[in-house]
Amino acid sequence: MPQFRRQLPVSSGYFRTLGIPLLRGRAFTSGDTAANQPVCIVNEELARQYFKGRDPIGAMVSVQAMEPSGPKPVVRQVVGVSHQVKVEGLAEKENDPEIYVPITQNPWFWAAIAVRTQGDPLNMVAAVKAAVARIDKQEPLTRIRTMDQVLAESVAEPRFRAGLTGAFAAIALALAAVGIFGVLAFSVSQRTREFGIRMALGAQSADVLRMVMREALKIIVTGVAAGLLLAAALTRSLAALLFGVQPHDMVTFIGSAALLAVVAMIACAAPALRAARVDPAVALHQE
Fold first, then answer.
1. What is the pLDDT of residues 204-225, one digit of tens each?
2. Shared-domain flag, residues 211 and 263
């Protein structure tokens, strides 16, 4: 008989309120009280790990019930299988096995209330407080939040890390563009006499432009290729910062390489146009 420690006491309307579908079996009902058969609902990951393709409905599992005197094992019957839920938020990487038990069979010192509303949920705060006060006037309601706020809080840290990484990436991209521009501009200034001679011998501006852009393209291709190889080697260390993207996602790699190439080509445009506009007479006179 499987034994589990992690459990979530919930009410009979928990799954309906939060929109969590039940894949098999039933939800808890008002009949699931402490006087009746102890029951539970397991999630997809738990069913996959411990039942391995067998139907868990009707199976008996041992759960460490929470008691003021300490946990004690309780044998419960599985009555349903719920859809997998990211309990810790969207940033949760692993699918943890979860087991739900009726709160009427395992009450605890504190609880959270989830309310489904139409319109702005914050407009219902006064009504919810009044409903709780009718049961217990001394019971305070704290940390009142909407699900949008809960969602935002769950991804706040990874979103900050992503924004910080994006800012550093933008700075690196700008520095790369400035570097390519500087290298090519210096090369053009050093070869002004060469361009003048070529144009004096019959070369057209377009020929000089193509020559400079070819050299720039060699620099760009070499840099992008080296960057892709290093990125492929280092993505494993960044896997914990990614959400919804695989470490070696081809679309991301190709898109990043294309963006870098376009920015580099734009940075090369000014020096290349400068080389194409060299006046042979002026260039030779300056030398």
1. 878 778 888 888 888 888 888 8
2. yes
Instruction: Give the span between the Cα atoms of 50 and 53, in whole angstroms.
Output: 9
Give the count of beta carbons closer than 10 Å to the beta carbon of residue 2. 17
pTM value is 0.61
Cα separations in angstroms, 251 against 91, 178, 285: 21, 26, 52
**Domain end position, chosen among 111, 130, 147:** 111
Q: How far apart are CA 114 and CA 6, in angstroms?
A: 21
Q: Do 75 and 8 belong together in one domain?
A: yes
* 217 lies in the same domain as 106: no
CA separation for the pair 53, 104 (Å, rounded): 30
Q: Could you give the CA distance from residue 201 to residue 3 in angstroms, rounded to a whole number? A: 88
Distances (CA, A) of 253 to 134, 138, 224: 59, 58, 10
**Interacting residues of 107 by C-beta distance below 8 A, sequence separation 6+:** 9
Range(s) of the domain holding residue 80: 3-111
**pLDDT one-digit tens code per residue, 124-156:** 888 888 888 888 888 888 888 888 888 888 778
Total number of domains constituting the chain:
2
For residue 25, count CB atoms less than 10 angstroms from its CB and return exposed for 0-12, middle for 13-18, buried for 19 or more: middle
